[in-house]
Amino acid sequence: IDPILPPKTCTFDCIYCQLGKTRNKVGITEDYKPKVKVENVVKDFKEKIRGIDLKTVDYITFSGTGEPTLNPFIGKMVEKLRELAEGIPFAILTNSSLIFREDIKRALCNFDLVAAKLDAPSQELFERINRPARGLKLKMIIENLKLLRREMHGKLALQIMFLKTSDGNMLNSRAEVVEKLVEITNEIGPDEVQINTPYRPPSESYVKPLTNEELMAITEIFKRNTSGIEVHSRLFPRKLRKTEVKAETLEVVIIELLKRRPCKIKDITDSLGIPESEVRKCLDSLHAKGLVKLVKYKGDSYYIHV
Q1: CB–CB of 196/243 below 8 Å?
Q2: Contact (Cβ atoms closer than 8 angstroms) between residue 193 and residue 182
Q3: Which of 7, 76, 161, 257 is the residue whose CA sits 20 to 30 A from 18?
Q4: Are residues 47 and 145 both part of a single domain?
């Protein structure tokens, strides 16, 4: 569920973002006017679930083209959708920037899983990696993640994107930085940590993913130095159940997916539960119509919405 909609609107302009550069960077004092209302989401949700077996869905996730907590109605959206969701839990992916606001903190407490970004242990690295809107302070974010952990009844996951640059700068992947991130993680006390590296084309071409060996080493550091916290790495993905999409809506669904992030064919088949042959046929059609294009990154082929 995308409560923001294109163009990308966010409080960050992360150098690794798979959605590209932030078109509309919103500061903490700016009055963002949301395009998406509660009734829009409820209407769209009712239409979408007609083609989906809800028993195959693990989570209904709020994400999309920017920071979802910029929409002040997300708490009410979850309340309304729970009436239709047949007990399916709700998740949200947030960059953590607005948790200091009490209304946002209360809204996040309505979710069963909050996956919160934390890529840096210092203001300097925070500004270099996440390029936040003016006025956002990392210390404030960390303190409010601690408060959220105490107030919420659902699960809290920290998402950390480890990366390096083409000139060899390890940024947040240096040993001393990783150790500090482990320390902060223990202070926050999340249920789990999700360790990632950029696998899709990033916003800035100088951003490079870690090798498997580097990511494994960081994963082991977290496992050895945390207690009672699950540590998950992109190297060890958990198996997801498949969903089904009606054939006649496949082009629309794929376009909506590509608007939000570049995808390999496997990403699309895994997300939608559609056979690879059907996905290829649909992508060929969309490519011929000029609606998608193919780009190469790290030896893989990604489709991007035009």
Answers
A1: no
A2: no
A3: 76
A4: yes
Amino acid found at 186:
N
The helix/strand/coil state of 17 is coil
List, in sequence order, the alpha helices (H) in 189-274: 212-225, 250-260, 265-272
Residue 302, SS3 per DSSP: strand
Give a yes or no: residue 240 inside a domain: no
Residues 20 and 57 in one domain: yes
Assign residue 295 the CATH number of its domain: 1.10.10.10
State the residue range of the domain holding 159. 9-233
State the DSSP H helix or E strand holding residue 188, giving kind and residue range, or none if neither. Answer: helix 175-188
Structural domain contains residue 2: no
Q: Which amino acid does the sequence have at 200?
A: R
Tell me, rounded to whole angstroms, the distance of Cα 144 from its chain centroid.
19
Give the model confidence (pLDDT) of 258-270 as tens digits.
888 899 999 888 7
Say if residues 304 and 262 touch (Cβ distance below 8 Å). Answer: yes
pLDDT digits (tens, 9 = 90+) for 167-179: 999 999 999 999 9
pTM (2 d.p.): 0.81
Decide if 4 is inside a domain.
no
Contacts of 123 (CB under 8 A, 6+ apart): 137, 138, 139
Q: Name 100's bridge partners.
A: none
Alpha-carbon gap, residue 64 to 9, rounded angstroms: 10
